[in-house]
Amino acid sequence: MRIVWIAFVASAFLGLLAMLMKAIGKPTRPSILSIFAMVVVTASNLALAQPATNTPLTPWGVTTSQPVARELTFFNDKARLSGTLWLPDNDRANPVIVVHHGASDPLRTSSLYKHLIEMFPPLGIGVFVYDRRGSGDSSGPSAGGSFELLADDGIAARRMLEKQPGVDPNRIGYWGLSQGGWLAALAAKRDPRCAFAIAISAPMVTADVQMRFAVANILRIRGYSQSVIDQAVNARRGVDDFMRGKISRAEAQQRLDAAAAQPWFKLIYMDRTFHDPAKSGWAREMSNDPMSVMKTIKAPILVLYGANDPWVPVKTSMERLEPLLHERGHTNLQLHVVSNADHAMMTSASPLEQVDPKSTAHEAPEAPEYFAVLVQWLTSMGIATAQ
């Protein structure tokens, strides 16, 4: 509150100064205004970085320990990345979870990540959430479909965090949902220092197969006929097959043009044209093989799916992962399907809301089973502890 008050006073003084200089007919000196402007901005940013107030909201309430926020910056491959570290309010070296982004959730302020900030610090676990490269307060070029580069951004965050006070450098892991689940697993494979990983709703098929599955469900939920679904999937498959060198550009474009003339085209996540494979970000995404990644991860990893996920072929993913449980050398893997949960581990969203892009801004896990399994696994790993 003291910092907020300082910001308020500085802001008020800045306004009065400008009015006074105007009244006496003297121009306001830019240097003075600049100094006070920086004071206001800095004070405001500091206020946002403080722990949430633990003052009781009612006369009968009690104070509670709140996480401490620390604004941090790190660098990787031409990008300056900005994030917030939320730590338990203690004097110990704490394990930390680095959050990898879902495709539609590039900002640390996403509703999808709020539960992590609220849930983990009381369990003695820090959370680091940063803005994806080229988004929010993070600069740098787009990854251009390179999952390796995005995974390496998270690994760079881990390297930065291991030098931070209040962080146990030997217990830093990764969490991600959807595309973020792919990235968490990939980071666990590429980072020998990874202590653990959690992959939520990460399909065990390539990106093109996953999107054909999703598009079929999007149209099915919206009431389109099977013939429409077949045409939409055929259009996507045409571009995918061209990227893999199976058909000509002309044939792929012909299928795409036929779909583009339909009123449902805007629902199938395609443009009217496409790049050659060598320049295509989509081709790069398609090249990521999640099963080859899973087979080589050494760190403990928890993989969770929602039973009612319209975006991910959960049945196929489980069928591909379950044999690993019985193979020698894969005792690090735990699988679980959360009953009644969707892609974002929600239970209250209707099927139509689940496939509506506008709903992404409000997605937040709510399935009790998701939280229970997550905490049980982290406790069994010695990561979660009572505070």
Give a short account of the largest sheet.
Answer: 8 strands, mixed
Number of helices: 13
Radius of gyration: 24 Å
CATH architecture term of the largest domain: 3-Layer(aba) Sandwich
The fraction of residues in strands falls at 5-15%
Helix content: 40-55%
What's the average pLDDT? Answer: 88
Q: How many strand segments?
A: 8
The shape is globular
Q: Would you tell me the structural class of the helices and strands?
A: alpha/beta
SSE pattern = HHEEEHEHEHEHHHHHEHEHH
The CATH superfamily of the largest domain is: Alpha/Beta hydrolase fold, catalytic domain
Q: Which CATH top level class of the largest domain fits?
A: Alpha Beta
Low-pLDDT stretches: 1-51
Q: If strands are numbered along the chain, what order do they take across the biggest sheet? A: 1-2-4-3-5-6-7-8
Terminal residue distance: 26 Å
Which topology of the largest domain does CATH recognise?
Rossmann fold
- Whole-number count of domains: 3
